[in-house]
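FAQ: What does the model actually see?

It sees only this:
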Amino acid sequence: MSDDDYSDELVVQQVLSGQKDLFRLLVRRYERQVRGMGMGFFRNGDDAGDFSQEVFLKAYRNLAGFEGRSRFSTWLYKVAYNTALNGVNRRREYLSLAEGTDEPEACESESPEYLLVRKAAREAVREAVRELPERFRVCVDLYFFYERSYQEIEAITGFPVNTIKSHVFRAKKLLRGHLEGIAEGG
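And it is asked to produce this:
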């Protein structure tokens, strides 16, 4: 059986039954997402790395608390979200994943004009997301970047589903209005 053949739930069962080294599979599967959430809260790689280690340590220590009522990833994101909320200085703001500085690599076939337009569009989206209220940015990130369902976002953040739907709807409306204003030259 290869590492990819193990479902998250099977890995959890195996770790709890004594095969503790299998926890590395869960770390490997979710390290990028957890670190990304850490970047959103702490804004630098060192703190995000420390955050990621803390989250996986807490997850490992509390693995018996995973009851399987949700996907493992939802449970892990809740651990990460709560860890971030407890660890972040209240004066700092959440930074959306849209704020990331990673630029996609250009294809050789893309013209310089296309690359400039793409860069401008990316910056416009980043600016628009920066202007969203923090509670909207968290929901937008979990919904669009982490592809979590409304129910999963509820489990992670504790926000009621209708509030999450409202936040995502309002955020999309604000983003659309901001981006249309830029497109029109305003």
